[in-house]
Amino acid sequence: MNARIIDGKAAAADLRGKVTDAVHRMRRDRGLVPGIAVVLVGENPASEVYVRNKSKAVAEAGMHALDRKLPAATSEADLLELIAELNSDEAVNGILVQLPLPKQIDPQKVIAAIDPAKDVDGFHPLNVGRLASGLPGLVPCTPLGCILLAKTVHASLSGMEAVVVGRSNIVGKPVAQLLVAENATVTICHSKTRDLSAVCKRADLLIAAIGKPEFVRGDWIKPGATVIDVGINRVAGEGGKSRIVGDVAFAEASAVAGAITPVPGSVGPMTIACLLLNTLSAACAQKGLPLPQI
Protein backbone atom coordinates (compact mmCIF):
# COMPACT_ATOMS: atom_id res chain seq x y z
CA MET A 1 0.00 0.00 0.00
CA ASN A 2 1.25 3.47 -0.85
CA ALA A 3 -0.26 5.92 1.62
CA ARG A 4 -1.93 9.11 0.48
CA ILE A 5 0.25 12.06 1.52
CA ILE A 6 -1.86 14.54 3.45
CA ASP A 7 -1.07 17.96 1.97
CA GLY A 8 -0.88 20.16 5.04
CA LYS A 9 0.49 23.08 3.06
CA ALA A 10 -2.56 23.11 0.80
CA ALA A 11 -4.96 22.72 3.74
CA ALA A 12 -3.21 25.55 5.60
CA ALA A 13 -3.29 27.78 2.52
CA ASP A 14 -7.03 27.16 2.16
CA LEU A 15 -7.71 28.03 5.80
CA ARG A 16 -5.48 31.11 5.66
CA GLY A 17 -7.32 32.26 2.55
CA LYS A 18 -10.68 31.99 4.31
CA VAL A 19 -9.36 33.86 7.37
CA THR A 20 -7.91 36.56 5.12
CA ASP A 21 -11.26 37.03 3.38
CA ALA A 22 -13.00 37.33 6.75
CA VAL A 23 -10.43 39.87 7.98
CA HIS A 24 -10.90 41.98 4.85
CA ARG A 25 -14.70 41.94 5.35
CA MET A 26 -14.25 42.94 8.99
CA ARG A 27 -12.04 45.86 7.98
CA ARG A 28 -14.45 46.94 5.23
CA ASP A 29 -17.72 46.55 7.15
CA ARG A 30 -16.66 47.30 10.73
CA GLY A 31 -13.42 49.25 10.44
CA LEU A 32 -11.77 46.64 12.67
CA VAL A 33 -8.45 44.88 12.15
CA PRO A 34 -7.46 41.97 14.43
CA GLY A 35 -4.10 42.38 16.14
CA ILE A 36 -1.84 39.74 17.68
CA ALA A 37 1.19 40.21 19.92
CA VAL A 38 3.77 37.45 20.03
CA VAL A 39 6.23 37.92 22.89
CA LEU A 40 9.68 36.41 22.33
CA VAL A 41 12.13 36.36 25.23
CA GLY A 42 15.75 35.59 24.36
CA GLU A 43 17.26 34.25 21.16
CA ASN A 44 16.15 30.64 20.77
CA PRO A 45 16.78 29.88 17.05
CA ALA A 46 13.73 27.63 16.62
CA SER A 47 11.49 30.19 18.32
CA GLU A 48 12.85 32.97 16.12
CA VAL A 49 12.02 30.97 12.98
CA TYR A 50 8.49 30.32 14.22
CA VAL A 51 7.92 33.98 15.09
CA ARG A 52 9.27 35.10 11.72
CA ASN A 53 6.94 32.70 9.87
CA LYS A 54 4.02 33.75 12.02
CA SER A 55 4.65 37.45 11.42
CA LYS A 56 4.69 36.88 7.67
CA ALA A 57 1.40 34.96 7.86
CA VAL A 58 -0.20 37.67 10.01
CA ALA A 59 0.74 40.37 7.49
CA GLU A 60 -0.53 38.30 4.56
CA ALA A 61 -3.86 37.82 6.37
CA GLY A 62 -4.28 41.58 6.74
CA MET A 63 -3.89 41.50 10.53
CA HIS A 64 -1.68 43.71 12.69
CA ALA A 65 1.47 42.12 14.14
CA LEU A 66 2.20 43.81 17.47
CA ASP A 67 5.16 41.67 18.46
CA ARG A 68 7.54 42.29 21.36
CA LYS A 69 11.10 40.96 21.58
CA LEU A 70 12.76 40.99 24.99
CA PRO A 71 16.33 40.16 26.06
CA ALA A 72 17.10 36.78 27.63
CA ALA A 73 17.83 38.48 30.98
CA THR A 74 14.26 39.82 31.26
CA SER A 75 12.85 39.25 34.74
CA GLU A 76 9.61 37.45 35.43
CA ALA A 77 8.17 40.65 36.92
CA ASP A 78 8.98 42.64 33.79
CA LEU A 79 7.39 40.04 31.53
CA LEU A 80 4.24 39.94 33.69
CA GLU A 81 4.09 43.74 33.53
CA LEU A 82 4.21 43.60 29.73
CA ILE A 83 1.44 41.01 29.65
CA ALA A 84 -0.72 43.26 31.84
CA GLU A 85 -0.18 46.08 29.31
CA LEU A 86 -1.15 43.83 26.40
CA ASN A 87 -4.22 42.57 28.28
CA SER A 88 -5.50 46.16 28.56
CA ASP A 89 -4.59 47.20 25.00
CA GLU A 90 -7.74 47.14 22.84
CA ALA A 91 -5.64 46.91 19.67
CA VAL A 92 -4.33 43.53 20.86
CA ASN A 93 -6.85 40.73 20.35
CA GLY A 94 -4.44 37.84 20.77
CA ILE A 95 -1.40 37.26 22.97
CA LEU A 96 1.08 34.44 22.53
CA VAL A 97 4.18 34.10 24.70
CA GLN A 98 6.64 31.93 22.81
CA LEU A 99 7.94 28.92 24.76
CA PRO A 100 10.45 27.92 26.04
CA LEU A 101 11.18 30.83 28.37
CA PRO A 102 14.49 31.53 30.14
CA LYS A 103 14.97 29.60 33.38
CA GLN A 104 14.31 32.62 35.63
CA ILE A 105 10.70 32.80 34.40
CA ASP A 106 7.93 30.40 35.47
CA PRO A 107 5.95 29.61 32.29
CA GLN A 108 2.83 28.63 34.25
CA LYS A 109 2.68 32.04 35.94
CA VAL A 110 3.03 33.70 32.56
CA ILE A 111 0.33 31.60 30.91
CA ALA A 112 -2.05 32.22 33.82
CA ALA A 113 -1.45 35.98 33.56
CA ILE A 114 -2.74 36.21 29.98
CA ASP A 115 -6.36 37.32 29.58
CA PRO A 116 -8.18 34.06 28.66
CA ALA A 117 -10.11 35.97 25.97
CA LYS A 118 -6.77 36.82 24.30
CA ASP A 119 -5.11 33.44 24.90
CA VAL A 120 -4.75 32.41 21.25
CA ASP A 121 -2.41 29.56 22.28
CA GLY A 122 -5.29 28.00 24.25
CA PHE A 123 -3.04 27.21 27.23
CA HIS A 124 -4.71 29.29 29.97
CA PRO A 125 -6.24 27.07 32.69
CA LEU A 126 -9.69 28.52 31.98
CA ASN A 127 -9.51 27.60 28.30
CA VAL A 128 -8.11 24.17 29.18
CA GLY A 129 -11.07 23.64 31.51
CA ARG A 130 -13.57 24.82 28.92
CA LEU A 131 -12.13 22.37 26.38
CA ALA A 132 -12.33 19.50 28.87
CA SER A 133 -15.92 20.47 29.73
CA GLY A 134 -17.03 20.68 26.11
CA LEU A 135 -17.59 24.44 26.32
CA PRO A 136 -16.57 26.97 23.65
CA GLY A 137 -13.19 28.60 24.09
CA LEU A 138 -9.82 29.15 22.46
CA VAL A 139 -8.22 25.82 21.54
CA PRO A 140 -4.48 25.03 21.20
CA CYS A 141 -3.39 25.54 17.60
CA THR A 142 -1.45 22.35 16.89
CA PRO A 143 -4.17 19.99 18.19
CA LEU A 144 -6.81 21.91 16.23
CA GLY A 145 -4.62 21.61 13.13
CA CYS A 146 -4.36 17.85 13.66
CA ILE A 147 -8.14 17.49 13.71
CA LEU A 148 -8.55 19.60 10.57
CA LEU A 149 -5.90 17.54 8.76
CA ALA A 150 -7.64 14.31 9.76
CA LYS A 151 -10.86 15.75 8.36
CA THR A 152 -9.24 16.21 4.96
CA VAL A 153 -9.23 12.40 4.84
CA HIS A 154 -12.40 11.57 6.79
CA ALA A 155 -15.60 13.61 6.54
CA SER A 156 -16.41 12.47 10.08
CA LEU A 157 -14.25 11.13 12.90
CA SER A 158 -17.29 9.80 14.76
CA GLY A 159 -16.91 6.20 15.88
CA MET A 160 -13.26 5.94 14.86
CA GLU A 161 -10.75 4.37 17.21
CA ALA A 162 -8.13 7.06 17.79
CA VAL A 163 -4.80 6.56 19.54
CA VAL A 164 -2.70 9.51 20.71
CA VAL A 165 0.97 8.79 21.47
CA GLY A 166 2.07 11.44 23.97
CA ARG A 167 0.29 13.15 26.86
CA SER A 168 1.72 16.68 26.88
CA ASN A 169 -0.41 19.68 27.79
CA ILE A 170 0.53 21.25 24.45
CA VAL A 171 -0.61 18.47 22.11
CA GLY A 172 -1.46 15.07 23.58
CA LYS A 173 -4.10 15.98 26.15
CA PRO A 174 -5.90 18.70 24.17
CA VAL A 175 -5.99 16.68 20.93
CA ALA A 176 -7.53 13.82 22.90
CA GLN A 177 -10.25 16.18 24.18
CA LEU A 178 -10.92 17.41 20.65
CA LEU A 179 -11.21 13.81 19.44
CA VAL A 180 -13.70 13.04 22.21
CA ALA A 181 -15.72 16.06 21.04
CA GLU A 182 -15.69 14.51 17.55
CA ASN A 183 -17.19 11.32 19.04
CA ALA A 184 -14.07 9.23 18.47
CA THR A 185 -13.07 6.49 20.93
CA VAL A 186 -9.75 7.72 22.32
CA THR A 187 -6.73 6.07 23.95
CA ILE A 188 -3.80 8.16 25.20
CA CYS A 189 -0.46 6.33 25.27
CA HIS A 190 2.71 7.32 27.09
CA SER A 191 5.98 5.93 28.47
CA LYS A 192 4.17 3.63 30.91
CA THR A 193 1.77 2.13 28.37
CA ARG A 194 2.08 -1.66 28.17
CA ASP A 195 2.52 -3.22 24.74
CA LEU A 196 2.48 0.18 23.06
CA SER A 197 2.86 -1.19 19.55
CA ALA A 198 -0.25 -3.37 19.94
CA VAL A 199 -2.29 -0.41 21.19
CA CYS A 200 -1.17 1.71 18.25
CA LYS A 201 -2.07 -1.04 15.80
CA ARG A 202 -5.73 -0.82 16.88
CA ALA A 203 -5.98 2.78 15.70
CA ASP A 204 -8.03 3.93 12.74
CA LEU A 205 -6.46 7.34 13.45
CA LEU A 206 -3.00 7.55 15.01
CA ILE A 207 -1.60 10.87 16.24
CA ALA A 208 2.08 10.78 17.23
CA ALA A 209 3.31 13.57 19.50
CA ILE A 210 5.95 12.03 21.72
CA GLY A 211 9.08 13.95 20.66
CA LYS A 212 11.21 10.92 19.76
CA PRO A 213 12.57 10.62 16.23
CA GLU A 214 10.98 7.84 14.17
CA PHE A 215 9.71 6.19 17.35
CA VAL A 216 6.52 4.76 15.81
CA ARG A 217 7.46 1.97 13.40
CA GLY A 218 5.63 0.74 10.34
CA ASP A 219 4.57 -2.54 11.95
CA TRP A 220 2.81 -0.55 14.70
CA ILE A 221 0.28 0.78 12.23
CA LYS A 222 -3.03 -0.77 11.25
CA PRO A 223 -3.25 -1.24 7.47
CA GLY A 224 -5.17 1.67 5.98
CA ALA A 225 -4.97 3.84 9.11
CA THR A 226 -4.60 7.62 9.00
CA VAL A 227 -1.39 8.86 10.65
CA ILE A 228 -0.85 12.44 11.85
CA ASP A 229 2.79 13.01 12.78
CA VAL A 230 3.31 16.03 15.04
CA GLY A 231 7.00 15.40 15.73
CA ILE A 232 9.81 17.72 14.62
CA ASN A 233 13.18 16.14 15.39
CA ARG A 234 16.62 17.04 14.05
CA VAL A 235 18.87 14.02 13.51
CA ALA A 236 22.26 13.44 11.92
CA GLY A 237 22.20 12.91 8.18
CA GLU A 238 24.69 12.08 5.46
CA GLY A 239 27.85 14.13 5.09
CA GLY A 240 27.59 15.55 8.58
CA LYS A 241 24.42 17.46 7.73
CA SER A 242 21.31 17.25 9.88
CA ARG A 243 17.81 16.43 8.67
CA ILE A 244 14.31 16.79 10.07
CA VAL A 245 12.21 13.71 10.84
CA GLY A 246 8.95 13.14 12.64
CA ASP A 247 7.95 10.81 15.47
CA VAL A 248 6.91 8.21 12.88
CA ALA A 249 9.25 6.19 10.64
CA PHE A 250 7.81 7.72 7.49
CA ALA A 251 9.07 5.28 4.85
CA GLU A 252 7.90 2.25 6.84
CA ALA A 253 4.57 3.82 7.77
CA SER A 254 3.83 4.96 4.21
CA ALA A 255 3.88 1.33 3.07
CA VAL A 256 1.12 0.44 5.53
CA ALA A 257 -1.01 3.51 6.28
CA GLY A 258 -3.89 4.75 4.18
CA ALA A 259 -2.91 8.40 4.66
CA ILE A 260 -0.02 10.13 6.43
CA THR A 261 1.36 13.60 7.06
CA PRO A 262 4.92 14.34 5.93
CA VAL A 263 7.49 15.99 8.22
CA PRO A 264 8.18 18.80 7.78
CA GLY A 265 5.44 20.57 5.85
CA SER A 266 2.07 19.48 7.22
CA VAL A 267 1.25 20.00 10.89
CA GLY A 268 3.56 23.05 11.10
CA PRO A 269 1.78 25.12 8.45
CA MET A 270 -1.61 24.15 9.91
CA THR A 271 -0.49 25.36 13.36
CA ILE A 272 0.16 28.85 12.02
CA ALA A 273 -3.11 28.85 10.07
CA CYS A 274 -5.00 27.89 13.24
CA LEU A 275 -3.25 30.69 15.14
CA LEU A 276 -4.72 33.14 12.62
CA LEU A 277 -8.14 31.53 13.02
CA ASN A 278 -7.90 31.81 16.82
CA THR A 279 -6.93 35.48 16.55
CA LEU A 280 -9.93 36.18 14.31
CA SER A 281 -12.19 34.27 16.70
CA ALA A 282 -10.82 36.20 19.70
CA ALA A 283 -11.32 39.54 17.94
CA CYS A 284 -14.92 38.70 17.07
CA ALA A 285 -15.70 37.55 20.62
CA GLN A 286 -14.16 40.69 22.15
CA LYS A 287 -16.19 42.95 19.84
CA GLY A 288 -19.42 40.99 20.30
CA LEU A 289 -19.47 39.89 16.66
CA PRO A 290 -20.40 36.46 15.32
CA LEU A 291 -17.49 34.41 14.00
CA PRO A 292 -17.57 34.54 10.20
CA GLN A 293 -18.24 31.27 8.46
CA ILE A 294 -14.89 29.64 7.65
Tags for this model:
294 residues; alpha/beta; 6-stranded parallel beta sheet; 40% helix
Structural class: alpha/beta
Order of helices and strands: EHEHEEHEHHHEHEHEEEEHEH
Query: How are the strands of the largest sheet arranged?
Result: 1-12-9-8-6-7
Shape, per Cα inertia axes: globular
β-strand amount:
15-25%
- Give unreliable regions as ranges: none
Q: What does the average pLDDT come to? A: 96
Q: Which sheet architecture does the biggest sheet show? A: 6 strands, parallel
Q: Span between N and C termini?
A: 34 Å
Amount of helix = 40-55%
Radius of gyration: 19 Å
Q: Report the strand count.
A: 12
* Number of helical segments with 4 or more residues: 10
Your description of this structure?
- By secondary structure, the chain is an alpha/beta fold.
- The protein contains 10 helices and 12 strands.
- It has helices spanning 8-30, 45-60, 76-88, 107-113, 125-133, 141-150, 172-181, 196-200, 250-254, 267-286; strands at residues 4-5, 35-41, 64-65, 68-70, 94-97, 161-165, 185-189, 205-208, 226-229, 233-236, 242-245, 259-260.
- It has a 6-stranded parallel beta sheet. Strands 2, 3, 4 and 5 form a 4-stranded parallel beta sheet that branches.
- α1 runs parallel beside α10 (267-286), α2 (45-60) packs across α10 (267-286) and α6 packs across α7.
- The protein is globular, with a radius of gyration of 19 Å.
- The two termini are 34 Å apart.
